[in-house]
Amino acid sequence: MRAFDYARAENPAAAIAAHGSDGQAAFLAGGTTLLDLVKLDVMQPRKVVDINGVALDRIESLDDGRLRIGAMVTNTALARDKRVVEDYAVLSQALLAGASTQLRNKATTGGNLMQRVRCPYFRDGVSACNKREPGSGCAAIGGVNRSVHAVLGTSDSCIAAHPSDMCVAMAAIGAKVQVEGPEGRREIDFADFHLLPGDTPQREHALAPGELITHVVLDAPLAGSRSAYLKLRDRQSYQFALASSAVIVQMDGNTVREARVALGGVGTKPWRAPEVEAALKGEPASEQRFADAAKLAFEHAVAYSHNAYKIPLGQQAIVRNLTDLTIA
Q1: Which residue of 100, 171, 211, 213 lies most exposed, with the fewest beta carbons within 10 A?
Q2: How many CA atoms lie less than 13 Å away from 128 in the CB half-sphere?
Q3: pTM exceeds 0.90, yes or no
């Protein structure tokens, strides 16, 4: 492990000041991603700013019906919060589908948003990887790309799938990410927070240098809606999604009044599927209707040598989830 400076902050302003904006520092919360990647020498911060003393661990109901989640709220606390369980079941289920109990007890909301990809070529420190070393190439495109590589939002520079379950649920719900930095406070729409790889896969988030996530504010829940998270994986525990779906549906009898659909495991970012939502709105619930709509999410999918199966599997994740929520 390389040597680095360490600082501990007690409030956002002190954390931002200690971090600076030169790109050589990292904020430390739960450390479930950062410490792994530092040990692997994939991330090489010159300074680590510990924010565990910053009071950002509250979940607050806002007057307009939204829910405000502090960046330091653990995945366990968020998944078990009564308001989340009752109003955002899809989020609670997504969190509980991720990692292990021990990791959920440490992992934080802000850290989960910043979770980095699980591509082995990114993490091995020696393979060609444009995300780790811009301009070096992407070994995954011609290599083994079965499980943690995407078919949506890929580019010639990177095909790594985004790994978070929580973020897929938040993409379906809709949210704002509140941040503070050297230039003050601002909000980023959740849909714009994670970036497609394009020609710059090393830039994964819309954060400016030195900015700190302070809160995530979830949109108010759809009245009378049902929601669920379905995760398809090689085994039932401690495994990343091959394909997953977060679905929120509001029904009027047997007719879909409103639907929100997001996908995980198949995209280079948490993947909202507005074309599926539009195809379902105002239509009767049926497996055939769901299957027709699910195909629309993958019209522009690009399969690689080992992951073509993700296209029908991703469609299946949508159909099964919708069926369980509306017909089964």
Answers
A1: 100
A2: 13
A3: yes
